[in-house]
């Protein structure tokens, strides 16, 4: 079984290239290739399918951050990195649930990944703040800001979507929305 | 207000590269000249990047969820892990809790059992009949002085008072003595004293807690072997039989008489008979004798609440004990007497003959 899995692993360098390019196909391959390993680890250590999914997706985000920040060196195998991150995240979750994290069953080698997790957690906190702020400013502000800042839509498109009579009205609205968001964001 | 909005729009146009080239150059010029403007640009850039990153993060999560949904998780799970049975999963998850619960339960059970006295060897209304000699301080003092006075005559009698006392009787002519396990249990040393007051050192060669039988061997050189024993051992006896015993419930032999009243002993104890007979502490280990002078048991205890309910170990278990003695702990041969010299005699004559074979067992 393991041999089959190994065959389907995409080459590490290809993955890194694909991630940098933002290729959806790379994500698809990457995701499918390493999920079984993480699932095996989580299931063997008192977790279930949903735990595995959450932990694995967080792991992939950590990997993306690392690759995009440009300091992912191929000193270690991608597989080892993913395993180490997933393991660390799961141990953390176990201790939060105040379940014992003794007797962890390991299947792979482990790397020290604390630094990567720290920057990930910092980012995650920021994202949570944005999420709360966005959920508080209400519509249409939320969608306008999402469209403009997150999906890089032009003001023209937004103007049409929301039926503003001219772009200046839309800009005005967007400005007000942004001010509210900033207020909420920097308050919290 | 409006100017600030204009500024933001300008900054955004600049950062998104939507400015015409000419305007852009002018703006860049302005940035280098105006540090306040420059700081605003930097701050806004950071905010935009943050929002954009957040957007990318959400998009990545959405993509991953899509991929996840397209996967056959069930199949992957069964391929990576040998599906453990439900019980195993539960066990793994809860084994710590189960462990704690089990220990608490076990502790509770044993505490309860202990507190209701299940482990107390001495049953509430069962009374083993060995005598605590130290209780009789007055008598002890007298015997002590007597012992001191008579020392030359009985060179081997210890001068300190014994801790416990019971009764024993000769099993063979060559110095084997039967008594109860509970009489000699925990003994540092054991002496047997005959009705003439002569004490002999003895050692335990066999003891069995279950049937409460112990066999001693007199190891004293002053002890002279008997020529013969007057009594025999009889295996079966009938209910209602007149029986009697001789025991050292005080420092001289005391006769007790009664009838064999039940086949089983205390709370269904099949190793013993019940005898309706007054017995006291010190009677333990005494012979239970039928009218023809056969030994049919060893007196071992009584029940407190019931009038005249004494118990005696059945002869079967005496014979079993004899068979169970390991060969190498026998220093001389153990031969059971087969010839009864008492059958025709009345009780006082029987007692006269038997009393020489009865001992007070003194435990130190």
UniProtKB/TrEMBL annotation, chain A:
<dbReference type="GO" id="GO:0016987">
    <property type="term" value="F:sigma factor activity"/>
</dbReference>
<dbReference type="InterPro" id="IPR039425">
    <property type="entry name" value="RNA_pol_sigma-70-like"/>
</dbReference>
<dbReference type="GO" id="GO:0006352">
    <property type="term" value="P:DNA-templated transcription initiation"/>
</dbReference>
<comment type="similarity">
    <text>Belongs to the sigma-70 factor family. ECF subfamily.</text>
</comment>
<keyword id="KW-0731">Sigma factor</keyword>
<dbReference type="InterPro" id="IPR007627">
    <property type="entry name" value="RNA_pol_sigma70_r2"/>
</dbReference>
<dbReference type="InterPro" id="IPR013324">
    <property type="entry name" value="RNA_pol_sigma_r3/r4-like"/>
</dbReference>
<dbReference type="InterPro" id="IPR014284">
    <property type="entry name" value="RNA_pol_sigma-70_dom"/>
</dbReference>
<keyword id="KW-0805">Transcription regulation</keyword>
<keyword id="KW-0238">DNA-binding</keyword>
<protein>
    <submittedName>
        <fullName>Sigma-70 family RNA polymerase sigma factor</fullName>
    </submittedName>
</protein>
<dbReference type="InterPro" id="IPR036388">
    <property type="entry name" value="WH-like_DNA-bd_sf"/>
</dbReference>
<dbReference type="InterPro" id="IPR013325">
    <property type="entry name" value="RNA_pol_sigma_r2"/>
</dbReference>
<keyword id="KW-0804">Transcription</keyword>
<dbReference type="GO" id="GO:0003677">
    <property type="term" value="F:DNA binding"/>
</dbReference>
<feature type="domain" description="RNA polymerase sigma-70 region 2">
    <location>
        <begin position="30"/>
        <end position="99"/>
    </location>
</feature>
<dbReference type="Pfam" id="PF04542">
    <property type="entry name" value="Sigma70_r2"/>
</dbReference>
From TrEMBL, chain B:
<keyword id="KW-1133">Transmembrane helix</keyword>
<keyword id="KW-0378">Hydrolase</keyword>
<protein>
    <submittedName>
        <fullName>Trypsin-like serine protease</fullName>
    </submittedName>
</protein>
<dbReference type="InterPro" id="IPR001940">
    <property type="entry name" value="Peptidase_S1C"/>
</dbReference>
<keyword id="KW-0812">Transmembrane</keyword>
<keyword id="KW-0472">Membrane</keyword>
<dbReference type="GO" id="GO:0006508">
    <property type="term" value="P:proteolysis"/>
</dbReference>
<dbReference type="GO" id="GO:0004252">
    <property type="term" value="F:serine-type endopeptidase activity"/>
</dbReference>
<keyword id="KW-0645">Protease</keyword>
<dbReference type="InterPro" id="IPR043504">
    <property type="entry name" value="Peptidase_S1_PA_chymotrypsin"/>
</dbReference>
<dbReference type="Pfam" id="PF13365">
    <property type="entry name" value="Trypsin_2"/>
</dbReference>
<feature type="transmembrane region" description="Helical">
    <location>
        <begin position="96"/>
        <end position="119"/>
    </location>
</feature>
<dbReference type="InterPro" id="IPR009003">
    <property type="entry name" value="Peptidase_S1_PA"/>
</dbReference>
């Amino acid at each position: 079984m393991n041999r089959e899995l190994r065959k389907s692993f995409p080459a590490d360098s290809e993955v890194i290239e694909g991630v940098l390019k933002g290729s959806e196909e790379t994500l698809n391959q990457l995701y499918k290739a390493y999920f079984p390993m993480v699932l095996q680890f989580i299931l063997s250590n008192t977790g279930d399918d949903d735990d595995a999914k959450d932990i694995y997706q967080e792991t992939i985000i950590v990997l993306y951050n690392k690759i995009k920040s440009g300091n992912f060196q191929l000193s270690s195998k991608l597989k080892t990195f993913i395993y180490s991150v997933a393991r660390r995240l799961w141990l953390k979750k176990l201790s939060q649930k105040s379940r014992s994290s003794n007797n962890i069953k390991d299947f792979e080698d482990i790397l020290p990944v604390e630094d990567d997790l720290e920057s990930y957690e910092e980012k995650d906190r920021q994202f949570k703040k944005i999420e709360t702020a966005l959920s508080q400013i209400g519509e249409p502000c939320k969608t306008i800001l999402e469209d403009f800042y997150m999906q890089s839509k032009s003001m023209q498109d937004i103007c049409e979507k929301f039926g503003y009579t001219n772009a200046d009205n839309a800009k005005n609205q967007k400005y007000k929305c942004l001010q509210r968001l900033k207020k909420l964001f920097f308050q919290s | 207000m409006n100017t600030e909005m204009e500024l933001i729009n300008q900054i955004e146009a600049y950062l998104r590269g939507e400015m015409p080239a000419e305007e852009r150059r002018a703006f860049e010029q302005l940035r280098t000249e105006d540090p306040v403007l420059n700081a605003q640009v930097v701050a806004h850039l950071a905010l935009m990047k943050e929002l954009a990153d957040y957007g990318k993060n959400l998009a990545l999560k959405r993509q991953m969820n899509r991929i996840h949904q397209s996967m056959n998780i069930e199949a992957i799970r069964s391929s990576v892990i040998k599906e453990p049975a439900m019980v195993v999963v539960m066990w793994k998850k809860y084994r710590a809790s189960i462990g704690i619960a089990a220990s608490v339960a076990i502790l509770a059970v044993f505490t309860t059992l202990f507190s209701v006295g299940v482990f107390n060897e001495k049953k509430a209304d069962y009374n083993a009949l060995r005598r605590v000699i130290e209780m009789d301080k007055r008598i002890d003092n007298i015997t002590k002085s007597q012992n001191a006075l008579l020392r030359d005559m009985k060179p081997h009698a210890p001068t300190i008072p014994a801790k416990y006392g019971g009764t024993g009787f000769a099993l063979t002519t060559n110095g084997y003595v039967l008594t109860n396990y509970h009489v000699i249990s925990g003994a540092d040393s054991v002496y047997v004293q005959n009705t003439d007051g002569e004490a002999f050192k003895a050692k335990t060669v066999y003891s069995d807690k279950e049937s409460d039988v112990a066999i001693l061997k007199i190891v004293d050189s002053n002890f002279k072997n008997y020529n013969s024993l007057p009594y025999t051992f009889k295996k079966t006896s009938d209910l209602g039989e007149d029986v009697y015993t001789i025991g050292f419930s005080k420092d001289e032999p005391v006769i007790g008489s009664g009838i064999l009243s039940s086949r089983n002993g205390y709370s269904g104890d099949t190793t013993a008979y019940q005898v309706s007979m007054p017995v006291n502490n010190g009677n333990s280990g005494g012979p239970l004798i039928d009218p023809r002078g056969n030994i049919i048991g060893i007196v071992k205890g009584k029940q407190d609440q019931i009038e005249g309910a004494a118990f005696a170990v059945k002869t079967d278990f005496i014979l079993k004990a004899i068979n169970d003695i390991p060969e190498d702990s026998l220093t001389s041969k153990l031969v059971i007497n087969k010839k009864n010299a008492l059958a025709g005699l009345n009780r006082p004559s029987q007692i006269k003959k038997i009393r020489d074979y009865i001992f007070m067992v003194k435990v130190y």
